[in-house]
Amino acid sequence: MRHVILGTAGHVDHGKTALIKALTQIDCDSHKEEKERGITINLGFAHMNLPSGESVGIVDVPGHKDFIKTMVAGAFGIDIVLLVIAADSGIMPQTKEHFRILELLGVANGIVVITKKDLVDEEMLELVQLEVAELLEGSSYESAPVVKVSSLSGEGLDELIMEISIMIPRLNIKKSQDLFRMYIDRVFNVKGIGYVVTGSVLGGQLETGSILNLLPGKGKQFKVRAMERHGIPIETIVSGDRAALNLSGFKMEDYQRGMVLSDQILDETALLDATFKLFSDEQMGLWSKVIFYSGTFESTAKVHVLNKDGLEKDEMAIVQIHLEKPAVLLNKDKFILRNSSNDMTLGGGVIIDTKPLHHRRRTPKLIQVLTELSEATLNSDQQFNMIKIELKKAKTPVFSEELAEALKLQHDELLHECDENNDGTVIVRNISGKNIIISSDQQIEYEKTIISMLQQHHETNFLIDEGLDVNELIGKLGLKTIEAAKMYIPDLLDTMKEGGSIRKVGNTWSLVTHQVTIDKKTQQQIDWLEKNLLGYNSQIPLNKELEAEAYSEKINRDNLKLLLKYLVHLGKIRASEGEYIHTNIVEEVKRKLMPVLVEKERGINEKEFRLLFDSTKNFVKTMIRILVDEGLITKSEFYIHITEKGKDYYKK
Fold first, then answer.
1. Beta strands of 400-525 (E only): which ranges?
2. Do 304 and 420 belong together in one domain?
3. What is the CATH number of the domain that holds 347?
4. What is the pTM of this model?
5. 228 and 283 share a domain?
6. Residues noted as catalytic
């Protein structure tokens, strides 16, 4: 069964509500003020059963110019529109405004209904039909059926029902996405039941008992106690349904207009990239203050035109929208903009990015990227391009589940796109059962960067065979916080090893081309430094002293650091917090200290340690750090004690 929502549109007092009542026997003007004023103010809801047995949800929107925001909310999510034009009035300002709004919101299927035919003669009817043909010419509704009816007598209603029945099978079936989303357009309290919220289901499906998030907000969740579709209790609702939900624990103070219900927690945004078409006679400059509408959400905003210096009527541009208050929106959502006085609809468009950077400069590169993004967003056959663009934005490897969520695609659909339409620009790696996706350009960039980092490391550390370990590489690539990268980079390094560009040295990675060569002069400097450190015995040279002594041997500071690192690498000297001690001295300290600690159950303090070796405080503190790191001793506030490992060392 298809799940279809029918909506009305048109000028005030053209008979929209009367038409719905004639079709359904339901009066949508249920509010006291509507009865008194004789016009629709709030959204009205009804349903009708077709001869085929299908039940169609109906949304009746207000036609008065003061209630355009309510009209936009009602039009959001409808499948078929009935554009209502009164035969005794013809096309009026709100007829044209509603018509343009419907086009901008992407409501592609419509039927023109000329009402009140009983009030005019045939000549007048023909004139109205000519007006209608002129309005529809060149639009997506150019071939829409035109039906003349009288809601009072019922004439023409059967023809209208037939046209609706013919159109429904031709509709594109809405994909039932993983994500359930429904704007709340009405809230009321039912005695003995509690609060009920209604709306049009924009995507996904929902079962009784499910937990829903009320967004944007502070993480408030509600359990679905019961649901109705067209007044009938049901267990499941799907995309395209008009639904009423009874939410357990819901209170009126929880709700603000513009909120959406979803079975997932969605990020808020106050910055949007979008395509926008201006249809008003007003021009738009580089920056404009506007009122933004999408679904039931409304906010004042500023619009920055990015790829032009301004807009004339019927021109399209890529814009960045700065919302005054945060919203929960998705890519491909439609929106309408009105001027800051809220007395004119300027135009509308499609969101292409809900998480953009703030575009302070309108560079050619930015315009190119946004143009590609808009083309991919607006063309349903360019889903793979959307994947490529999202990866280009991410600039990192991503888990396939995260990418599917970002694009609001089903996971299997994403993997299918990457498999079927892949032109070599996207790489999917299965690592330990997880699919990690990256653009081929980004992988090439990582490979080049890793090679460059290792080259730089080897140039600085030319005496050492070891390179950088995987954690150092991840850190230098700026990927420490990216979980997918922690799995991806080790896998990439293995691939680079297979390609012959790098090799494993210990737990580090080095370039295959890197070979340690020590010339005679360097070897002499190494020998001098080792002998010099050995001569300090139970003292430690200050860094300034060591640098001065090295300078006299024509060894500058950078080379001294490299020589020290090389000797540490060979195990000839030990390093701790910038202090260096010859390994032979460390071993001598162990040989003398361990027997003393074995004998002294209470341990020894630092002063006793210093006296034992006739050494300095600095030497003692450094030796304590080294021996603690080796696990041979422990250090309390005052005393040094031998460990079990230390006792084993002593026995050996």
1. 426-431, 434-439, 468-469, 502-505, 508-511
2. no
3. 2.40.30.10
4. 0.69
5. no
6. 13, 16-17, 64
